[in-house]
Task: inverse folding
């Protein structure tokens, strides 16, 4: 697996976690009751939190080791990770 493939995999995982968090917040704020999504979110909330923390750490270690193939993909992935973490912190602090 090449470095650029790893970057794309990281970006895809980060984007999936970001969409999950946005959808979860949207449904919670608008008080939409979807039972299948509530069950789905109960199962995938902890893995999404873990991925939101592990992916930036993985990215920083790759940056230190000079294993970044494409800086633009790296920056986009890091930006989406930071936004996801900020949304999680917003959800924890304001929605509880």
Result:
């Amino acid at each position: 697996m090449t470095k650029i493939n790893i970057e794309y995999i990281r970006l895809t995982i980060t984007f999936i976690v970001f969409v999950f968090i946005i959808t979860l917040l949207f449904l919670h704020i608008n008080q939409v009751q979807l039972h299948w999504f509530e069950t789905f979110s109960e199962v995938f909330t902890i893995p999404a939190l873990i991925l939101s923390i592990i992916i930036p750490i993985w990215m920083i270690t790759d940056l230190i080791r000079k294993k970044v193939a494409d800086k633009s993909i790296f920056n986009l992935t890091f930006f989406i990770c930071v936004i996801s973490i900020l949304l999680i912190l917003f959800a924890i602090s304001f929605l509880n």
Observations:
- The chain has a mean pLDDT of 90.
- The radius of gyration is 15 Å.
- Residues 35-64 form the longest helix (30 residues).
- The chain has three helices and no strands.
